[in-house]
Amino acid sequence: MSDIVDEINRMHRETGTRQVASGQARSLLMRRTYDAEVADVWDAVTSPERIGRWFLPVSGELKVGGRYQLEGNAGGEILACEAPTLLRVSWLFGPDPGFSEVELRLAPDGEERTVFELEHVAVVPEEFWGQFGAGATGVGWDLGLVSLGRHLRGEDIDPSTWEGSPDALVGAEHSARAWGEASLAAGDPADEVAAQVAATTKFYTTG
Q: pTM score, two decimals?
């Protein structure tokens, strides 16, 4: 299990707020380095065949201005695509999702390493954020990006069962704590963060 903990600990995390047209949004920023060249990482996050091997099956008109749909999850519009460094999409889930965008940024770190950044900015209901905090979304992204790393190493992954696996459950617990640390670093009250970490851990590990 130490491998999943090491992978969770490789991620740099930040939380913050941002003003958007529909109000104040919450932002999550994740950054890590993969031992893969930038062209390979870009292909893994934009090729429909490869996305389905580490994340979820995706369908739609996969070009700027087109719409995509992840099976059983979010969908939206492809807002920007600048190979091999930038992908930005709206990230909409549920009957009334409001503003939500995800941006991926890739940069080469030498010939065979890639700095990967994911930023998710969304207007989140205050009662939901108050209960779960950054980990509600952050843990899911952490597990997805661990899965991406394993895919880039050539490991076989079954995305349909990954998040319920014993390895992922341990990862979710450590991820929830890590997002709590990011919230504390952003100045959130310690008692609120502790309650959010507990609620997020319970959600991801017991349902």
A: 0.95
More confident residue, 102 or 161: 102
| Residues contacting residue 43 through CB under 8 Å, at least 6 positions apart | 50
Q: Is the pLDDT of residue 94 over 90?
A: no
One DSSP character per residue, 146-194 reads HHHHHHHTT----HHHHTTSHHHHHHHHHHHHHHHHHHHHTT--HHHHH
Residue 2 predicted with pLDDT over 80 = no
- List the beta strands (DSSP E) in 64-180: 67-70, 75-82, 86-90, 100-108, 114-122
Residues 55 and 144 sit within 8 Å (Cβ to Cβ): yes
Number of domains observed in the structure of the chain: 1
φ and ψ of 54, to 5 deg: -130, -15
Residue 22 CB neighbours (<10 A): 9
CATH number at 196 reads 3.30.530.20
Q: Residues 9-32: pLDDT tens digits?
A: 999 999 999 999 888 999 999 999
Domain residue limits at 83: 2-206
